[in-house]
Amino acid sequence: MSTDTAATPLAGQVALVTGASRGIGAATAQALAAAGAHVVLVARTAGELEKIEDAIFAAGGSATIAPVDLTEPESVARLATAIAERWAALDILVINAAVLPALTPVWQIEPRDFSRAITLNVLATHSLITAFHPLLKGSHNGRVIGLTSSVGASPRAYWGAYGSTKAAFDNLLSSYAQEVAGISAIRVAIVDPGATRTKMRAKAYPGENPASVKPPEAVATRIVALVGEDFASPHRERVDAPA
Questions:
Q1: Catalytic residue positions?
Q2: Which of 48, 99, 181, 199 has the smallest CB count inside 10 Å?
Q3: pLDDT at 10 over 90
Q4: What is the pTM of this model?
Q5: pLDDT for the residue 116
Q6: Domains plus CATH for the chain?
Q7: Taking 50 as the threshold, does the pLDDT of residue 243 lie above it?
């Protein structure tokens, strides 16, 4: 891998990306690795993570797979312990993993479906912050990037289940950002990827032409740039399609 610091601005940094087996998570993991970071790839399925790891290795980057069920707080805590045994700090935490419940009127939301979304989209976020806060504090430039949705801030008919989890997600991360702003170097950004070519997008808009929306790589490029910026925390932005 190139030692050119301009080509690898994140050399020496450790990043963790959840939902790294596909979509925005996979693209972000590969982009972070291309920028020089060692990336810990987190998702439930080892086989899918291995494909991303192989792609990173083939491009000259470095990564470690961590098949973890984020809905189990004990598993997240064990992952943090394992990372702490190998590295003194975590420089970048990208919270991307999420689930989209069925789009339905509020009075028809299926409780089990809703509970699953709350567990992954909200409670797992709390588990990640709890487990990795000490490692983030150990970084000279800790960055937490949370992937959200516009329906969290702007409620939309039939999106109540998903939107409410993202509203809670946004609130949790914004509160954390304010709590750590004056006592650490940790900075938090909440990124709305906008319309992006992902499996979740295809589920929500089955009749849409995938080519009509931007690829995950466009979001990944912006995330890599963002982690190198000195932004006010909490920071929020939307990634629009390239002009």
A1: 162
A2: 199
A3: yes
A4: 0.96
A5: 97
A6: 14-238 (3.40.50.720)
A7: yes
